[in-house]
């Protein structure tokens, strides 16, 4: 799913705590190389929600607001 919409995933903050890690700049970082998303349910959940909302035609701002409301 992430590969289908990297431009959207790159515009989303990850709430699992990985944002504090060096070289982490967005949810997309969690899915790069050996990123945290391999084992983190928060990263995975945010990505699934973003993909579903994007498929439903929501804007990046609307997707961010939904993820903020659920995970912040």
Please bin the fraction of helical residues. 40-55%
Distance between the termini: 22 Å
Radius of gyration: 11 Å
Mean pLDDT: 89
Structural class: mainly alpha
Q: What portion of residues belong to β-strands?
A: under 5%
- Count of DSSP-assigned helices: 4
- How is the biggest beta sheet arranged? none
Sequence stretches where pLDDT stays below 50 over 5 or more residues? none
Strand segment count: 0
Spatial shape: globular
Q: Spell the H/E element sequence.
A: HHHH
Please provide a brief summary of the model:
The chain contains four helices and no strands.
Reconstruct the topology from this structure:
Elements: H1 6-9, H2 27-30, H3 41-55, H4 60-71
Helix pairs in contact: 3-4
Describe the structure.
This protein has helices spanning 6-9, 27-30, 41-55, 60-71. It is built from four helices and no strands. The longest helix has 15 residues, at 41-55. By secondary structure, it is mainly α. The chain starts with 5 loop residues before the first helix and ends with a helix. It is globular.
Keywords:
72 residues; mainly alpha; 4 helices; 49% helix; globular
């Amino acid at each position: 799913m992430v590969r289908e919409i990297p431009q959207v995933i790159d515009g989303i903050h990850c709430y699992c705590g990985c944002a504090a890690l060096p070289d982490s700049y967005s949810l997309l970082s969690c899915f790069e190389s050996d990123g945290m998303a391999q084992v983190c349910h928060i990263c995975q959940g945010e990505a699934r929600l973003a993909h579903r909302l994007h498929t439903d035609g929501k804007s990046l701002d609307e997707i961010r607001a939904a993820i903020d409301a659920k995970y912040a």
